[in-house]
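From the thread on structure requests for the teaching lab: each student submitted one protein with a one-line request. Submission from student K.M.:

"Model Act minimal PKS chain-length factor (CLF/KS beta) from Nonomuraea pusilla, tokens only."
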Amino acid sequence: MSALAITGMGVVSPTGQSPDQHWSSVMEGRSGIRPIGRFDAASYPVRVAGQVEDYVARGSMPSRFIRETDRFTQMGLSAADAALQDAALDPAELPEYAVAVVTASSSGGTEFGQKEMERLYQHGPSWVSPYQSIAWFYAATSGQISIRHGAKGPAGVLCAEQAGGLDAVALARRLVRDEVKAAVVGGTDASLCPYGLTAQLTSRRLSTVNEPERAYRPFDASASGYVPGEGGAMLIVESVDEARRRGARIHGTVLGHAAGFDPAPWTGRPSALRRTMERALDDAGIGPRDVDVVFADGMAVPADDADEAAAIGQVFGGGGVAVTVPKALTGRLHAGGGGLDLVTALLAMRHGRVPHTAATTDVPGSYDLDLVLDEPRRHPIRHALVLARGHGGFVSAVVLGA
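Reply posted by the TA:
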């Protein structure tokens, strides 16, 4: 499959509300993980999260969008607006069905739904907003972006948790090859509300360490689980030929992708990570030695970290490639995390800097990883591999080219 040009980036994340702000935070190790402030979390075992502070949708979009949508969709709209502006692409100037929209979501409009359920139980059905029927829906962001920008091409949503943000790019890649000129693609999630956090606790993978600087430590000997977060990123993708025809700036290219699914734990079969990485490299037409950095999934659950470290070692050789987990500064953004990792990898290529894994200090020797610690590492990057795993067994890998 041919390469796909990335010509626009938009970010709404705990580390900043633009690519430049996000990159500055990543380089300085400035964390967006802090005590939960969106509701009183004192009675919850998890009391810290990656939060997008000072995000205000009002004024940047019509008031009716705000009444009709959840926070995760509003963040998606903001990031899509910024990505389209960055790409200097106006869907209205292209043929009617030339722009697709593909997003990822893992929880839908959780906060919107909680508020409407409270109204239902406290006051009765007449108090429930008519927009409840659509605002909770996983595909709400795709639909609202399409409406806002008149993008009438194919629209879809991927529900594969953290892996969904990468799988969405793969679907957009096929659409650009076969049907459309460009696509708005990415993911956002925002489930930092009592209902959303309670649902996440069932995974039993969340860290209950309530000191922000110690709560989420991927590949660390003291890793105790991950921290939830909100936000994500949107990208504009188009064929390399189309981008060059428009004179667009190309941030990087999508060269390869593969997806897999982990077997049930009781089967004793190995995870799908190794095979997924190998297939993504085959799709990109490159070998392990061509990869300069791996943006790891970094669950910060000891068993999962050990599995991922082993798979990376099997593909690249022990310590054979630089590895980083910049999401240690944001928490896991669920469907928003894959897109944000892609943006971080693209910025790393531009600046020739591999971000460090800010919170991790003690990597077990058995992992045999060249995990970048303490500070960013100067290193030219031609190719980057981005990994993501989603709750339930989803696995995805994307190969980016400079």
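TA comment: The first strand starts at residue 4 and ends at 12. The chain has twelve helices and 15 strands.
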